[in-house]
Amino acid sequence: MTIKRTFDFAHNALQKYPREDMFVTKYHGEWQKTSTQEYIDLGNKISRGLLKLGIKPGDKIALITTATRTEWAVMDLGISQIGAVSVPVYPTISPEDYDFIFNNAEVKYCFVSDRDLLEKVMSIKQNVPSLQGIFTFDSIEGAANWNEILDMGKDEATQGEVEDLAKSINSEDLATIIYTSGTTGKPKGVMLTHQNIVSNVLASDPRIPRIKGLDYKDIKILSFLPICHIFERMLFYLYQYNGYSINFAESIEKMGDNIKEIKPHLMSVVPRLIEKVYDKIYDKGTSAGGLKSKIFLWALGVNKAKQNIGKPSGLKEIIADKLVFSKWREGLGGNIITLVSGSAALSSRLNKMFQNAGIPILEGYGLTETSPVISVNSFGRIKVGTVGHVLENLDVKIQEDGEITVKGPSVFKGYFKSEEMTREAFTEDGYFKTGDIGHIDEEGFLHITDRKKEMFKTSGGKYIAPQAIENQAKASKFIEQIMVVGDGEKMPCALVQPDFNFIHNWAERKGISIGKTPDEIVNSPELKARIGKEIDYLNTKLGSWEQIKKFELTPDTWSIDGGELSPTLKLKRKAVKEKYLKLYNKMYGHEV
């Protein structure tokens, strides 16, 4: 069948790839499977139930879940095939942002996963005149449950109406409004049509590796990134398009257990997860002691010296793989074909290390506004340090100032209720301005240098690209997060959030007393001196104008809840600077 709308993926899967475990979610300690047929039947019930509630094409329905689960998939199908518009919302944003999004989108109904989210939405309900009801996936006393919608849709007499509405939906019709988390200001409602998402899925499909001897029924996906983000959502449709089983992880905290239970073949990741996984591996390898630690460190040296990405060749590489790197693969379930990385830049050092350990990472690039993929590496065409080749159906133009601009079917319709912002987002000849600086090399690989808006100029007139410096700095075991500052100042400086877990172990190994509380630790002269060595080493790789001259340690762990990071784990630079303004002023000698 021809796929033109997002819900076509589900019906195509039933026709071509029916399976008993299309979706798998863990409830009360047990993995429960939903077949392709059950998925379609439940989606139709939701559609019929929503029609009985009075939902019409174009009405907005919010979906919020702490962890992705089968109910979200069913709701997405039920909403989309009657022409309603889904508004997926990050569970971690503030009630104030909920208030803004619900009112801006004029949300009619909201479906939430659990009690905490119910309470969050209830706290702003009285401020949202359009909101007629809230339903929960969990069974919560006194709350309306999504089963009520399923019960309302049991009668199949109105199925003809559902099918008529589905036929009337065009590929150019609005499918979803995704509010970008934003690192400054109010969230922006990105309008994505069915065509935007479908075209991106179909263009990305050739980049997914196919392994000989593996049938679609053999392949399992572990999905843990928030499905309200277009990166995971596009992959959600891509996996359906290929008939793969999608297993929803319980939480990031339980990822290790879930990986062992599911033994996935494909997973999408963000760079921060790769960094965390490596830190765990390194800590375990170096703390084993004796011969084991020596073998581990020797193997890392072999990995680093490996010239060509690929299978081990030569006796040293074969031994290192057998003794050390085969265990890395076992730790990821033993079946991983590849990890797909997006959302932020991945350290080239880590990327190369995992590739050489037999765990390929396909790094890609895109934005919510581009549905999202603009470019991605693929098997046989991997170049570490790049985000791969541009998708075949997109036209990328590098502007004179280095900004990456793009035109094509997956570029969004515009910002909801904001014509002026939409106009500003495009060049005069219709290219979307990504806000990222980059270039395409002679082999056609796209390189991302920095965010245009994040680049700043020192008082000496030199431009600084902070993200590139920060990515190199985070290779240090001592540095969990770092933000390079210095806009309009005479020199670059940095605010550093230490990796407290690693530092505790380091201090214990060295027999150094650095204090117990975060405030005591960040004021430890020994720690500051040691991190100073890390900064000195970083500076050897930087131009004289971009070297970090001073730094201060922050006592807090930067997080989404703390307001330092966005829901996609990007630095909220303005918020971080405001929070640590005293430290900022101290570095620059400003009087307060």
From TrEMBL:
InterPro entries linked: AMP-binding (IPR020459), AMP-binding_CS (IPR020845), AMP-dep_synth/lig_dom (IPR000873), ANL_N_sf (IPR042099)
Q: Which domain of life is it from?
A: Bacteria
Q: Which UniProt keywords apply?
A: Fatty acid metabolism, Ligase, Lipid metabolism
Recorded hits in PROSITE patterns, A to Z, give: AMP_BINDING (PS00455)
Q: Which residues form a coiled coil?
A: none
Per the database record, which ranges form the AMP-dependent synthetase/ligase domain?
Answer: 14-416
Pfam families membership: AMP-binding, AMP-binding_C_3
Protein's UniProt name: AMP-dependent synthetase/ligase
